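Forum: Protein Structure Q&A
Topic: Joint prediction for protein chains with partners

I've read a bunch of threads here and the consensus seems to be that you should model interacting components together rather than docking separate models afterwards. I'd like to see that in practice. Below is the full input, 630 residues plus whatever partners are listed. Could one of the regulars post the assembled result?
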Amino acid sequence: MIYVVKFYLKIALQNLVVHKARMTLALLGILFAVMSLVAFGNISGGLKKQIDNEIGKFGKNLVILRSGSVHVAGRGTHQFGESKTLKLKDVEMIRGSLNGIVEIVPFYDVTYPARYEDKTLTVSIVGTTDRIFKIRNLGLAMGRYFSNEDDLETAKKAVVGYKVFDNLFQREDPIGKHILVFRVPTEIIGVMDEKGTDLAGQDQDVQVYIPLNTLMRRYSNVDYIKGAYIQVQDGVSLIEMKMVLKDFMRRIHNLKAEQKDDFSIFTMDDIMKTQEQGIRLVSVLTIIASTVSFLIGGLGIFAIMLLSISERKLEIGIRRVVGSKKRDIVLQFLTESVIVALIGGAFGVAAGFVITLIVSYFGGFPFSLYPGNIFLSLVISTAVGMLAGIYPAMQGTKYEPIEILY
Amino acid sequence: MITLRNIRKSYFVGERELPILKGINLDIRQGELVILMGVSGSGKTTLMNIVGLLDKQTAGEYQFMGSAVDGLDDETLASMRNMHIGFVFQQFFLLPYLNAIENVLIPIVYSAKQIKHPRDKARQLLARFGLAERIHNKPSQLSGGEQQRVAIARALINDPDLILADEPTGALDSRTGSEIMDLFQVLNEEGKTIIVVTHDPKLTSFGTRLIRIEDGTISEDITR
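Posted by a regular:
Agreed with the consensus. Here's the joint model:
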């Protein structure tokens, strides 16, 4: 049996070598199909991994409340409406009235240039409380966080993102130095770890965190906040929390039924959902593309096998004379068509790797391999090879040896 | 070994019956070297195809190695050919993309017999026929005589009881042709039963028995 299989493989491979050009054409369809499946599997896997990382970076079980409603301006662009209706007392009421909340951290953020000596950098200045560092998993590269006391004293102290330090200070030790924020000298007491860009596309390393009271009373002179991070308890549904919060907010803002929300609520899930919808769309397109490619590949193999069999009638005749049964002939030609398909598949897997490498390198997400997709594509390739080969192989048994040889 | 009783074979062209074999009675015994001679169209090739289990008679009885083969299905006939009969053809019929030894080994693939070390055996057969240096050559790199010797080695690899050779010298020059016939003679002396089908009158001197076919019947049958 092993000998027979080896023999069929050998003949199949020799035929491949003899007919390189046409075999290459025949297996191109399979190659592209497998390539797209494998590349897509790896890339979407990499993206999912990245999303998981982001969620870790962003903080667990977070619901974000922002003042103003979101309206969609064009494709994928969300703009916040301006609203000054969200107050610190709202935050206190939420804290006091809603169940399932671990922590609620108000913030006021504004984009403004920060300056050190002759260098400036546009930063996102975030006034918030000392709890932000915990719920958003903000690690320190050096120095310390500001404290609740700093907030009460409206201390002019800042914890800055890594890029702020990197761009403004180069090699200098920034701790204890003063940067100008709203032209007010503010002491740097800490530098955060490098975080990269978050899922919403915001650079996390150009933040300057200062105590909320300092920003509201001394720098911006406002009595409203821009939003709050709400961390809910494990096991509490974020969707439910969103609904409860929405009702509660409408109630305390005395909104009538016909009035729109003057706030928006989102969770990481929303951002993830948008991303996953994108991935799903691409996955549908990939499946369509690879189905079509598999069909084309199958037809290619079908045509080549028909041709091959009519060319090799003599061979079939000789085999039949020396004792091959019809099923031996079928088996042999099926082996050949499956091998052609599998070689296409193997090259497809390799091409898929290369594409994954390139895309993940330029797309800046982790490279990952999904053996499941590779296995699946090879199984489909085998099936396509068999389906495409079965009819031609059956044709091969229709010739009687004496018709062929004489 | 072979018993043919009143074998008839006809082809039908539309409604018309075209008789090729018109009642052949023949017994071939173990150890004979039969020269089956006849002109083109005499029916000798048809007879050989029937004897070789490649074709079926229209009427009559055929017993091969003691049992009737009439009505056996294609698959059974295929494995009988594989186990009991070695074929040699005028055109050699080697597979062009396989080398000499691989060609010799083809019948092994389909064999139910457990031939031990088939590769060694194929090598020995080729060496015996003077092809020791040629075992890895493709047919296109071999002369006609060499190709025919590879074909004979292929016919022998499965230890057949009968060798059927259809015009084995037809595509060879006369010197190479008589070398091939000498080879058959030697194999026969070693006990193989061989039937050589030919139209070449030069071969009448070979063999232990001469059978002439004319117009679908046996016209002469001489055992020497």
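The longest helix of chain A spans residues 268-311.
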